[in-house]
Design goal:
Length: 255
Amino acid sequence: MKKTITVNKKKSLKLEKFIKPKKVYLPLIGYRTECKPIVKINDQVAIGTLIGKSKEPFEVNIRSTVSGKVIDILENTYLNGSKVKCLVIENDFKETKEIIKVKEPTNQEEFVELLKVYGIQGMGGSGFPTYLKYQNKLKTLIVNAIECEPYLNADNVLGIESASEIIVGLEKMISILKLKRIIICVKEKNKDFIKTFQEILKDKSQIELKVLGDYYPLGYERTLIKEVLNVTYKNLPSEKQIVVNNLATIHMISK
């Protein structure tokens, strides 16, 4: 069923399912490290099958996003213009899923292992391995739904569509990681997002919604932390027991 969501006073955005491609090119790269393919041409893969892996400078797992057959391993142009090795999968449209055996986390160590096994990477643009952000003791999680670049609207729509699922995931993270505070940050112009989360968060004392102005570069991690918490740090937010994740990354963790 299609929905229509108001983006601003003049325009609206129709939400539709993405048309599944016949072929998928999956770059065998994870945040500044090249991964080795662990499947070969003609192998059958499912959604979630481990297809690439790297151990150095840190562990990165890459999993298939479709089910089908590996038909090629070749070099292709990556986002930054460099040539990287890609796995080409012919989609069988069956959407067969592989069961990934990992323990349901009850503490921080198990949570980090889950993120590592699933190969979850930051979805805000950098692709930073998410598990690395959760290895230190943390008190505050900032969920970044700012989208400071002009015309970006993906997190706004994702939040409206998946708010309940995201909040359930955040509540589990509070329990597992012993977080003291979670702050969801959004721009004041995203009225539907704000309304949706205000309704859900009425009785959630440890999760709050922070409505901020519409200016650049508010979505930048260091700028956002300074604006929301008035905290500065030298190298990483974890020095102050803070972690920042893009909304889409949190949604992926919640799933």
